[in-house]
Structures are given as structure tokens and as C-alpha cells.
């Protein structure tokens, strides 16, 4: 009963504040990845590896700008640097008028040529994922990436950013480590910010690493993602959220004539998903049923 009361109260507030167009939009230009991290289900993903079509990408960016959204996230479930046209896509976003372009990367492919290309294209923010407290822990978690390569790539990116007087913000994101201080020691003096998260189960993927982390559960909450975020997969389909790595819960298809981000966001399908969250019936949505992100923890906001 408490779960449903929390969902009803918080969900009502989210519904009242819901914008008519999503403000956080992730565009997955590629779903390929060069890593087999033990904390990520990418290696077991059945979704076909594709890069987003240029014409679809341009149409998406134009709608985002036309609707007044000032930020676009060029990442989701893949390594963006596997997209050979990434720099061109970033430059297109900036030329159309998008104020901020952001991305995540695992850093392994961030050599000097790509780093310079990202800076010159106008990328505003990049976060590099670093897990583990040392070389051994990093390389076990983020196999087959090499610790020294990623660290050196980040350092060179920072040096280039400074040389070229770019305003690019460079951060490090860590999901799991045995020692936060040790994780920070080689890059703390270089990057603008370190952020630490928490392991989760990708809605339905309980790996040994996630199980070892003992993902705790508390009071069920309505997930703010269905009111705040919009996830476009590389094939043009719209997924439930960034944790829906297979695109199993399809909310729309931008390949269909006349279909727009706005029309999907305000569709009956999306509304039904939100109603299930508001009524505490998330278990009726396959990807939400066992998602470890769906529970409040002590000291955590209901809107996290």
C-alpha cells in the first residue's frame, strides 16, 4: 500500500510538471561497442549493430532545436567513437543551433586525432567511464580495455582542450570501485570533475558483478525517466529508457512517415506507461518489473 501511495503522490507531481516536449534526449548514433565490461549486458545484446542514418539524425536534431531544447546527448548503449562520422554529427548539431552537445565514452578510442576532432567540432562535454581502483581492477571490469591507454588519452584530451582554449567540460564517471580515492589518483589533477554512481541491473540483467554489489531495494517509486527522458535508438526506434538495451519496450518509430519526437512523447502508448507508474503497477511493464532503479533508498530523492 505504501508503494502505491508514494507512486500516486510523486507521479501526480511529475505529471503536472511534464513538459509537452522532452527536455533530456539521448540519440544513439551507434549501438556498437569495443568493450565487454562485466557490469554491462552489451555482449549479450541481440539487437543488430547499426549506425543511425544521416537523414534521420539531421531530422531529429532539427526537431530538437525547433522545439527549443538546448542540449543533446549523443550516447546511449554503445561507444560513440565507433561512429566514424561522430565529429561531423557534432558539427551539424552546432551549425543547426543546438547550444550544448554531450557524450559518454569509454576512452579507449580517444586518440589525439579523435580528441582534436571532437574539440574542433564543438563538443561541449564529455564524460569518460573509469571503473576500478587500479589497473588490475579496471582491466578486469572493463575488458579488454587497457588502463594506461585510457588514462593517457584523457590526459592528452585535457592538454589539447587547454591548448586550443576550448570550453569543453571533461569529466570522469565511475559506477563501481573498491576505493574511490585510488580511482581518482591518476586523473583528479587533470579533469574537471569526478562523479560516482551505483551499480544497477539494467532492468533485467543480473550479472555476478551486480549480484556481488548487493543492489538494495526499498519503497517502489515511479520512475522519473518516463516523464523526463527520451531515448532514440540507432535504428530510429524509441525505447522505454536508457536501460532498455534491447529496445524491448518500443514507444514509437521515427522511421514512420509523419512521426515526430513530439508525437511519440504525447502518444497514448507513452501515457499508458506513465499511468502504470503512477498507479504502482510498474510490474506490468516487463523492463520495469525488476529494475533496481525503481526503488527509493535512504537519503535518496524520489526523483533521482
Keywords:
304 residues; alpha/beta; five-stranded parallel β-sheet; four-stranded mixed β-sheet
Question: Summarize this, please?
Answer:
By secondary structure, the protein is an alpha/beta fold. 36% of the residues lie in helices and 14% in strands. Strands 2-3-4-5-6 form a five-stranded parallel sheet. Strands 1-8-9-10 form a four-stranded mixed sheet. A two-stranded antiparallel sheet has the order 7-11.
Structural summary, described in words:
The structure is a single chain. 36% of the residues lie in helices and 14% in strands. It is an alpha/beta fold. It has a five-stranded parallel β-sheet. The chain has a four-stranded mixed β-sheet with strand order 1-8-9-10. A two-stranded antiparallel sheet has the order 7-11. The two termini are 21 Å apart. 36% of the residues are buried. Mean pLDDT is 92; it is low at 298-304.
Amino acid at each position: 500500500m505504501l508503494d502505491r501511495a508514494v507512486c500516486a503522490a510523486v507521479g501526480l507531481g511529475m505529471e503536472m510538471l511534464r513538459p509537452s516536449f522532452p527536455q533530456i534526449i539521448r540519440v544513439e548514433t551507434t549501438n556498437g561497442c569495443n568493450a565487454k565490461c562485466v557490469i554491462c549486458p552489451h555482449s549479450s545484446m541481440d539487437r543488430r549493430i547499426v549506425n543511425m542514418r544521416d537523414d534521420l539524425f539531421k531530422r531529429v536534431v532539427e526537431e530538437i532545436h525547433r522545439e527549443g531544447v538546448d542540449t543533446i546527448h549523443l550516447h546511449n548503449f554503445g561507444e560513440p567513437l565507433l561512429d566514424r562520422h561522430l565529429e561531423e554529427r557534432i558539427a551539424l548539431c552546432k551549425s543547426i543551433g543546438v547550444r550544448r552537445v554531450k557524450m559518454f565514452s569509454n576512452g579507449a578510442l580517444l586518440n589525439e586525432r579523435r580528441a582534436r576532432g571532437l574539440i574542433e567540432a564543438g563538443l561541449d562535454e564529455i564524460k569518460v567511464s573509469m571503473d576500478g581502483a587500479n589497473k588490475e581492477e579496471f582491466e578486469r571490469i572493463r575488458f579488454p580495455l587497457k588502463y594506461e591507454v585510457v588514462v593517457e588519452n584523457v590526459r592528452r584530451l585535457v592538454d589539447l582542450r587547454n591548448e586550443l582554449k576550448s570550453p569543453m567540460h571533461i569529466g570522469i564517471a565511475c559506477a563501481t570501485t573498491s576505493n574511490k580515492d585510488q580511482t581518482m589518483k591518476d586523473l583528479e589533477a587533470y579533469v574537471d570533475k569526478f562523479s560516482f554512481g551505483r551499480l544497477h541491473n539494467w532492468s533485467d540483467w543480473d550479472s555476478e558483478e551486480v549480484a556481488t554489489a548487493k543492489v538494495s531495494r526499498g519503497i517502489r517509486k515511479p520512475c522519473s525517466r518516463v516523464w523526463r527522458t527520451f531515448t532514440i535508438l540507432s535504428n530510429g526506434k524509441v525505447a522505454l529508457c536508457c536501460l532498455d538495451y534491447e529496445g524491448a519496450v518500443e514507444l514509437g518509430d521515427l522511421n514512420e512517415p509523419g512521426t515526430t519526437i513530439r508525437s511519440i512523447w504525447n502518444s497514448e502508448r507513452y501515457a499508458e506507461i506513465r499511468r502504470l507508474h503512477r498507479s504502482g503497477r510498474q510490474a506490468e511493464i516487463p523492463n520495469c518489473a525488476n529494475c533496481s532503479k525503481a526503488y527509493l533508498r535512504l537519503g535518496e530523492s524520489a526523483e533521482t
